[in-house]
């Protein structure tokens, strides 16, 4: 395959890049010249070298190549509330919550969600790792609340149900509560266009 | 003006109809034939004749031409909880809440909202009528909660603030609480794209 | 049915109005007051009374109620070139061409187009009327060109083929040419996103 | 800067990648594992090594690292019609025309277009290179037509005017005609929504 198509094909594996944009990117790299390509290739190579995956929450975080830490800054920060863990689908969700500055507990990244008709849900998310971390946190950190913060769509709801069902044998005897994010009107929502479920929750959560 | 342009101009006063669609509608009426036009004109004429505006909640409701009732079915239904009133911007919002089947109290229709830079807010919504109805309901119906259910956008928030500020001199001494709809993730919302405010509320309203 | 739903149902028969907008329009009419409704109903009633359908091109045109002319201003304008007729799907297409000020011949309005899988094409467009008009114009007006100006989409192309096939037994012996609108880049089109057919035509029609 | 943000920043220089997608891509690369990152970095590095820029048409084309050819396959293909050159803004436009299989002449890639208010147009496109190539082709290849195939938008039209004006002192005495792509209805276009210019061209180019 020619090098332009070869690069385009690899770019198409990345989220949100279609065949047309992939080729435009390849040509743009050629037009921008070898220095830009070199820098980009270097940044991609460095990404793996200078990043580690946290042994507890499984997020990717910056870590020097020499001394690869095992724990991310949130998991090793004793100032954060270790009695709560918030479960998200992806690293980008975790970033969004961190940036909102409204949460002071621990995190856990599932690494994806479970499609409705998935026959082997355990393969789609880090459920074994989650169970191990919950067990450890219950014993060592006094864990008392698990917030399931999956998306408010079909896959997110299904994932939340699966996670809840899998965790309950561990959380119920340990009196750990499982909660989920509040539903209601998102910023910008107009009443007229809100679905029944959203209106019900908006009324229930009024205050 | 020719009759097609004349009709198009009147249609353009209606919500969501632009100049192009207005002409398409005019031609469609011609193509559909005089019977359809007659029926439509009749339905428009009947609308006013067979509808009344409730003296309490100001919604429009079906009412026979002879005996025009003063109160809509919700306001005259003694089975509904008269101690709560839910304030919406428009009749269509009221319809949405009614259809959701999750609310059993009274309503009030403001008739619009207040743009951010409006110099005379009182002209944009039925604020005097609302104050009168709240006063009446406090005295006669044991009103104890007012739910402000304006949209979760700028105008809606501004309207909610204005309504709250205007009602408080009446509600505070009467110990009537003013609440607003719960904010959080709307159905379909993805965490990564949620704004800070929505995330904060979703965390606060978790459960 | 209540008068609001009854009006909404009638409005939903019109092009581009869905159930939600239909109700918003009904409530808007109530809010705007009886004078506006009366004016709108009157404009709808007048539309039929003050409009006629041209006996030749079948477009709807303004015509006084007393003396209903048979021919529209274009068909009765002897200044226009009667040797060319341009066939469009709808009255709004005719308006678009008239407004562009780039055509000086006659028109014919098909009244729609033919869906690909239609079993009875003759029911969807005024094909008999077209054949009669072409025959008349060939005899009386020296017709020598028919421009088929249907849309550049599947239905439009299919309609053009059907019209051509139906007219040819009449036009071939009379040496009337059938043409169609030029294809190429529409204003705003970017080369990269143009389909093969458009590029081929753009190259062919270069100049 | 942390390696995730560093990569995201570089990705944002590429066409069509915004800040959010840039981070999603970075995390996706981490999740896909080091082998995928390595392959992508390699494909980017190879892109420059295995590609050359044609000395005549300035397109980028696959070329072995050892023997870097000076001419692309189109420019060295004696089977193609060297008497016509088609000028495009970008490599992706050239690809689109090649794929359409409807053009058998030579190409020239301008490398961009000229914004309306640009004070130094010569900096935005390869105008000197074009002039040199036209001069060469007039002398050596019997060039007799230049097709300006810029986009049908403001920048494209302005670029076409600038190119025409710059080439004319060379092309007029040499009797080389400058043409541009045909305008008309693009595939999918509906008459009602076509602008005046498109309708005018569609009528002119009918056939």
UniProtKB/TrEMBL annotation, chains A, B, C, D:
Keywords: DNA damage, DNA recombination, DNA repair, Metal-binding, Zinc, Zinc-finger. PROSITE patterns: TOPRIM. One of its GO terms (molecular function) is DNA binding. Signal peptide: none annotated. The keyword Zinc-finger applies. The keyword DNA damage applies. InterPro entries: DNA_Rcmb_RecR (IPR000093), Rcmb_RecR (IPR023627), TOPRIM_dom (IPR006171). GO terms for biological process: DNA recombination; DNA repair. It comes from the Bacteria. Residues 83-186 form the Toprim domain. May play a role in DNA repair. It seems to be involved in an RecBC-independent recombinational process of DNA repair. It may act with RecF and RecO. Belongs to the RecR family. This is Recombination protein RecR. The gene is recR.
């Amino acid at each position: 395959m020619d090098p332009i198509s070869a690069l385009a094909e690899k770019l198409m594996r990345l989220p949100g890049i279609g065949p047309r944009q992939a080729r435009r990117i390849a040509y743009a790299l050629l037009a921008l010249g070898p220095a830009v390509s070199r820098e980009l290739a270097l940044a991609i190579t460095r990404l793996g070298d200078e990043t580690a995956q946290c042994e507890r929450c499984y997020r990717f975080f910056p870590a020097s190549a020499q001394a690869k830490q095992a724990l991310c800054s949130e998991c090793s920060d004793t100032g954060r509330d270790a009695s709560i863990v918030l479960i998200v689908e992806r690293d980008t969700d975790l970033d969004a919550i961190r940036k909102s500055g409204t949460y002071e507990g621990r995190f856990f990244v599932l690494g994806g969600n479970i499609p409705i008709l998935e026959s082997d849900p355990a393969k789609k998310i880090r459920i074994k790792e989650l169970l191990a971390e919950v067990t450890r946190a219950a014993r060592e950190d006094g864990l008392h609340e698990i917030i399931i913060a999956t998306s408010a769509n079909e896959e997110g709801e299904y994932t939340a149900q699966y996670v809840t069902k899998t965790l309950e044998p561990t959380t119920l005897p340990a009196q750990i509560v499982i909660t989920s994010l509040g539903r209601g009107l998102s910023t910008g929502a107009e009443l007229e266009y809100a679905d029944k479920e959203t209106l019900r929750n908006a009324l229930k959560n009024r205050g």
